[in-house]
Design goal:
Radius of gyration of chain A: 22 Å
Strand content of chain A: under 5%
CATH superfamily of the largest domain in chain B: Cytochrome c-like domain
Structural class of chain B: mainly alpha
Largest sheet of chain B: 2 strands, antiparallel
Shape of chain B: elongated
Shape of chain A: globular
Number of strands of chain B: 2
CATH topology of the largest domain in chain B: Cytochrome Bc1 Complex, Chain D, domain 2
CATH class of the largest domain in chain B: Mainly Alpha
Strand content of chain B: under 5%
Number of strands of chain A: 2
Distance between the termini of chain A: 8 Å
Number of domains of chain B: 2
Bound molecules: protoporphyrin IX containing FE, fe (ii) ion
Strand order of the largest sheet of chain A: 1-2
Oligomer: heterodimer
Largest sheet of chain A: 2 strands, antiparallel
Distance between the termini of chain B: 49 Å
Order of helices and strands of chain B: HHEEHHH
Chain lengths: 457, 142
């Protein structure tokens, strides 16, 4: 750690990990409700568990991005953070807002939450991933503005590297596209059309800039490869990402009432979206192969390589699987979508945040890397989580193929619920893989507390 | 990468590509807005029941279990075409009769909607079922 102010990243990472645990626990609750339908009903209905699961995911990833940026931007800019105090205040505002929102989900019926938070004044609730009360959304915007102000000031007064520039564009883009969550027209088609400007333009747009920048930063640190080379790769990757991903939004416009020309535009451009993810994999392996030093933090290197591979599999391969309109006609809104959503989120964004935590946490705790013992445990966690996620994806894909076959392709289609009964075996297996995933998460947390001989930073 | 391909060239390609893609996306969006009136059944929005029904849909987070035009959660049946699959009377009776309480079966909560709210919800689901979705879903089961 070069600048003391970088340490504000630490609470963000700890908060993120806490929410990660909550996310996975609620995932397991839902996984059980899939097969034991009345589990915890009516105390935690499925939709409530789902909101906690997905919102906790998004909030902890945002915390992870913020922590990463607070660590990364000063180091790249070669200057202290503009205001560490503001960063700490915003952390608590964010954490408390998130906690209150989750308590709201769990404590009262959603309709009550909508009423007491005045949803009818500016209705934004009740849409997937954007379930937060409007006041929470406003809170998120305020936190984001403070965060961007703080980092932009830091960026402007310091050295402007490519990594910093790309990260800042990504973070500003994240905040700007979130504003579309306040646009909720009565017209259902327009509602859905612009809803994707938050969801798709995040994960297949601006977030890829953040992903690329963080990965590039960690790769420079652990491999010692020339910045020049790494920055060139970064620009190429994010160019490919935006050129394919922007118009690629069209893969969500096939069946929601939008014009049918989107079937062509969406299919063709989104079919190119795997390319930047593939480039990212090549990038990570190439840089590690050309490394000029043996960085003592081998766990961080493993996470960086894992990000490349798993993002390509989850987003690239599993995304391509159902992105062409004639295929998507059958798979739209099935377990295939869920399979892809899980592996893509895990492979790209969960893993890149953990990569950054893995690299920077030891430095913030005053050492170059954790002890060998701790790293071995961390690598166990890597494999447990990653292999479990591969199996979750495979089981959901199997469930999805059968679902499509029984309910949509068959000449004598079964109803939705009858189909679900037929495929429950795969949901049981998903749940088992989910338990392994949780064990991986716990192992990861345990690795932070393992002592042993450490090298000073 | 070769040394003739400089970082500043890469950067310029990035800015150019990003701006071009964004403009292309905006142009397609503009065209979409022009075509939408023929497909999105917007005339039905003059009916206040449809608008109220959408709000009830949102305020009860139906999307947290169901899909609507294929988007949402995958725990419970598609509702974009439920009006055609089941008809208005079934939908109202169904919502009023929840939860089924069948042991081990997936449950839908009781939302305590008034008769007026049930009619609004039906109007909204009717509207949704008439949007031109390019013949999706493949069959009535959704
Ligand atoms: C890291 C990047 C990505 C993430 C995190 C991600 C995540 C997701 C999620 C969560 C959904 C479900 C949205 C919903 O609930 O309605 C989804 C849908 C979809 N994704 Fe991705 N995705 C990524 C990249 C890609 C790529 C590169 C492709 C194409 C090659 C792709 C193709 C699709 C398609 C076609 C759907 C719609 C599925 C349907 O019709 O139900 N995704 N994605
Ligand atoms: C412990 C294992 C996990 C289990 C059992 C689990 C289970 C589930 C279930 C049942 C759903 C709802 C599907 C539906 O709508 O019907 C869901 C949604 C989702 N989960 Fe998980 N989950 C787990 C871990 C994770 C992890 C680690 C991530 C992040 C990488 C994640 C990301 C998501 C996302 C993005 C959605 C929304 C998907 C969509 O709309 O397509 N889950 N999860
Ligand atoms: Fe997408």
């Amino acid at each position: 750690m070069k600048y003391t102010s970088q340490a504000v990243a630490k609470p963000y990472f700890i908060g993120a990990m806490g929410l990660f645990v909550a996310q996975v626990l609620f995932g397991l609750i839902m996984g059980l409700q899939y097969v034991i339908g009345d589990f915890l009903f009516p105390h935690i209905p499925f939709n409530v568990a789902r909101m906690v699961h997905t919102n906790a995911l998004i909030v902890w990833l945002l915390m992870g991005f913020m922590g990463s940026a607070y660590y990364l931007v000063p180091e790249e800019a070669e200057t202290e953070l503009h205001s560490p105090k503001l960063a700490l205040i915003l952390f608590w505002v964010f954490l408390i807002a998130a906690a209150l929102t989750v308590i709201g989900y769990l404590a009262v019926p959603y309709a009550t939450l909508a009423r007491i938070t005045g949803n009818d004044l500016l209705p934004t609730m009740g849409r997937e991933f954007l379930e937060q009360p409007t006041i929470t959304k406003i809170g998120i915007v305020i936190v984001a503005l403070g965060f961007l102000y703080n980092l932009s000031m830091t960026f402007l007064k310091g050295r402007k590297t490519a990594i910093n520039t790309v990260l800042m564009i990504g973070l500003w883009g994240l905040a700007i596209f979130f504003l579309f969550s306040f646009y909720n027209p009565h017209n259902l088609v327009k509602d859905k059309f612009y809803w994707w400007w938050v969801v798709h333009l995040w994960v297949e747009g601006v977030w890829e800039l953040i992903l690329g920048a963080i990965l590039a930063f960690v790769l420079i640190k652990v491999t010692g490869v020339d910045r020049e080379v790494i920055e060139k790769w970064l620009y190429v990757i994010i160019t490919l990402a935006l050129v394919s991903g922007m118009v690629g939004t069209g893969h969500h416009y096939f069946w929601i009432g939008a014009p049918e020309f989107w079937q062509w535009w969406g299919s063709v451009f989104s079919a190119l979206e795997p390319v930047p993810f593939f480039a990212m994999t090549l990038f990570a392996f190439n840089m590690v192969n050309r490394r000029r030093r043996e960085h003592p933090n081998r766990a961080a290197t493993l996470w960086a390589l894992g990000t490349g591979v798993m993002a390509f599999l989850g987003a690239g391969v599993w995304g391509f699987l159902h992105t062409l309109a004639p295929v998507n006609f059958y798979t739209h809104g099935t377990q295939i979508t869920a399979a892809h959503g899980h592996m893509a989120f895990y492979g790209a964004y969960v893993m890149v945040v953990i990569t950054m935590i893995s690299y920077s946490m030891p430095l913030m705790r005053g050492r170059a890397a954790n002890s060998n013992k701790a790293q071995v445990v961390e690598m166990w966690a890597f494999w447990l989580m990653t292999v479990a996620m591969v199996f979750i994806t495979l089981f959901l894909t199997a469930a999805g193929i059968l679902q499509v076959w029984l309910q949509r392709v068959s000449d004598t289609p079964l109803g939705f619920m009858a189909t679900q009964d037929q495929i429950s075996l795969f949901y049981w297996m998903r749940e088992v893989a989910g338990v392994v995933f949780l064990i991986g998460v716990v192992t990861y947390l345990v690795s932070f507390f393992i002592k042993g001989e450490e090298r000073a930073a | 990468m070769s040394s003739t391909f400089t970082t500043s060239a890469a950067r310029n390609i990035f800015y150019g590509g990003a701006v071009f893609s964004f403009l292309l996306f905006l142009a397609l969006t503009f065209r979409t807005e022009q075509v939408l009136p023929q497909r999105d059944q917007r005339a039905q929005l003059d009916n206040p029941q449809v608008v109220a029904g959408k709000r009830i849909w949102e305020n009860n987070n139906c999307i947290g279990c169901h899909t609507l035009l294929g988007e949402g959660a995958y725990f419970a049946p598609e509702l974009g075409n439920v009006y055609k699959r089941r008809g208005p009377d079934f939908i109202k009776a169904w919502i009023k009769g929840q939860p089924t309480g069948v042991p081990g079966r997936r449950q839908m909560p009781q939302f305590n909607l008034t008769e007026q709210e049930l009619d609004d919800m039906v109007a909204f689901l009717k509207y949704a079922s008439e949007i031109n979705t390019a013949k999706w879903p493949p069959n009535i089961e959704g």
